[in-house]
Amino acid sequence: MASTETAPAEVSAHLTAEDRVGLLRAMLLMRGIEERAMTLYRQGKVPGSFYDGYGQEAVSAGAAWAMAPQDRLCILHRDLAAHLIRGVTPARIFAQYMGRAGGVTGGREGNVHFGDRKLGCVGMVSMLPDMMLVATGMAMAFKLRGEARCAITWFGDGSTSRGDFHEAMNWAGVQRLPVIFVLENNQYAYSTPTTAQFAVSPVERAAAYGFPGVQVDGNDAEAMFEATRQARERGLAGEGATLIEAVTMRMHGHAAHDDMKYVPAEQVEEWRAKDPIDRQVRRVEELGVDVDALREEVRAEIDAGVEEALAMPMPDGATARDQLFADQEALLSDGRGPWSGF
Ligand SMILES: Cc1ncc(C[n+]2csc(CCOP(=O)(O)OP(=O)(O)O)c2C)c(N)n1
User: Fold this and answer.
1) Residue 12 belongs to a domain with what CATH number?
2) Ligand 1 atom closest to Cα of 56?
3) Does 262 sit in the ligand 1 pocket, CB within 6 Å?
């Protein structure tokens, strides 16, 4: 029976102390990398604009932590922690931002549009929210092949007003697909507030398509983990899709060029007090972990990553047309055993 639920706030029994520190580490890395990238952007080293997920780190970290290697992730531009958790290194990310040869796409895509197939991540499609359809299609393939795998994707509140959102939700519901939809409700779609976006809480829409919608504190990495873990279990048990509404706040402008003057200052201050990293720091400190040392370790990793990326060459123009189309033979024989290709 479809329902709308609120996820429990208590600590997940499925997280070890190491996991809890790992979640904090991933969020610190995400924030540190994006802050450094903004500086590189202002120095003219990152072409295009720059988009970040400041204040939303728990949404991608918590959800990605619940996924297994054989699962597939359609990651959006505000979800860097998911790439990090899958194993993309800071150096490759900085190189991607700067369009260098060593970036994930080797300079072939927009700076935040990337995905390393070998790590189970799909290159981002910019037309929002088409990644919902891609994730749904992958889940359909898993079901048809009888594979115990799940697909997950993230998208914003603005995306819920598009037809593709409803198409993906409908097909996932009709087919009871192992797919997890993470609605990153960060209160604004560019300058449009949610009050101008939907007349009902979007999480309630899941019921209309025959699967549960769960509202989660999106600034709580552990709650995000637990909600996603449960959604994944449902998917693998053949019980179908789940919509997770992660309630959070976009703490920076839409992109580097946007000063978000349209957001009331009190709203930003209110959410600053709910910072997802501060929250995880408090928990991890209770475990007796030296968070200053962890911050130092993360900073050193970022410094080394920037240095490595800055030393990389720009791509060779002669390779510009390489890797634009799938080579099916290579995809099916890339040595990843049963999870070759997607
Ligand atoms: C189909 C489509 N229309 C317009 C855009 C341009 N665009 C990029 S991001 C964005 C706002 C998205 O808002 P939301 O889905 O809430 O995500 P957020 O940026 O808040 O994370 C728009 C309109 C797009 N990428 N795709």
Assistant:
1) 3.40.50.970
2) 21
3) no
Q: Of 20, 72, 58, 27, which Cα lies nearest the Cα of 184?
A: 58
Residue 175 domain boundaries: 4-310
Is there a domain that residue 229 lies in?
yes
Q: How confident is the model at residue 323 (pLDDT cuts 50, 70, 90)?
A: confident
Give residue-wise pLDDT tens across range 30-88: 999 999 999 999 999 999 999 999 999 999 999 999 999 999 999 999 999 999 999 99
**84 domain residue, yes or no:** yes
* Confidence label for 1 from pLDDT (cuts 50, 70 and 90): very low
- Does 250 reside within a domain? yes
Sign of CA dihedral 92, 95, 97, 103: negative
State mean pLDDT over 161-180.
Answer: 98
pLDDT of 8 > 70? The answer is no
Residue 334 lies in a domain: no
Cα separation, 50 vs 53, whole angstroms: 10
Average pLDDT estimate for 189-200:
96
pTM value? 0.95
How much distance in Å is there from the Cα of 208 to the middle of ligand 1? 24
- With a 6 A CB cut-off, is 191 part of the ligand 1 pocket? no
Ligand 1 centre from 22 Cα, in Å?
Answer: 30
Let me know: does 209 contact 170? Beta carbons within 8 Å: yes
Q: How far is the CA of 258 from the centre of ligand 1 (A)?
A: 14
The closest alpha carbon to 120, from 339, 271, 278, belongs to: 339
Ligand 1 in reach of 159 Cβ (< 6 A): yes
For residue 151, give the nearest of 90, 73, 85, 203 by alpha carbon.
73
Q: How many domains does the chain have?
A: 1
pLDDT at position 321 is 87
User: Is the C-beta atom of 160 inside 6 A of ligand 1?
Assistant: no
